[in-house]
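Let us work through a complete example step by step.
Step 1: write down the sequence.
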Amino acid sequence: MKYLLLLTLLLSTNILAAPTLPECISDNKELIKQLEDLIKSNDELIVKANELQVLESATPELKLDSLNIIVDKDGRVFVKDQLIGTLNVGSLSYKVSMKLNTTIVKAREKEYGFDLKWKAVIIESYERDKDNKVKAITSGALGIEPFYYKQFNLNLIIGPRLYGPAIGVDITEHFDILIGVGSLYNSQKAFFFGASFDF
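Step 2: predict the structure and record it as tokens.
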């Protein structure tokens, strides 16, 4: 009986004195998971840092879509009021749009210059006949306009009855009236006026 009590006492002492595992070691799976998460977060931070470094050194590139300007046969101008494009910065890409404030200005035409035009001319010349009476004679002629100043133009008229210089005034873009003094082929002088159409 003594030996049984002694054995029981020894066993109980050994059990109480047995070393226990630390909590951090017994929960090592959770610790490993936390370390893996930390490494993953660190890798993500490195990637973000590299991206920021690339963005800081990258040159922005703006690519705009084509802008079409349409002018119809009546001279009216049509332009889109919005411009669309793409902004590229490193690996990033953004769609951009810009509102346009367009003003169409017609170019001022030159006030003077050389502009060779051929004209069909109808003239009425006032000539003296053999009895020294003035009579009006209507005929056709060919006109050449080499020079203009604003709405006025200088012309050379050549016809079957006379030739000579004339001053013209533009009525429309292709029609003007003329007045001049020409020489008849019989060496007489004649005053004339007329109308011309350029072609």
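Step 3: interpret the result. The two ends are 145 Å apart (CA to CA).
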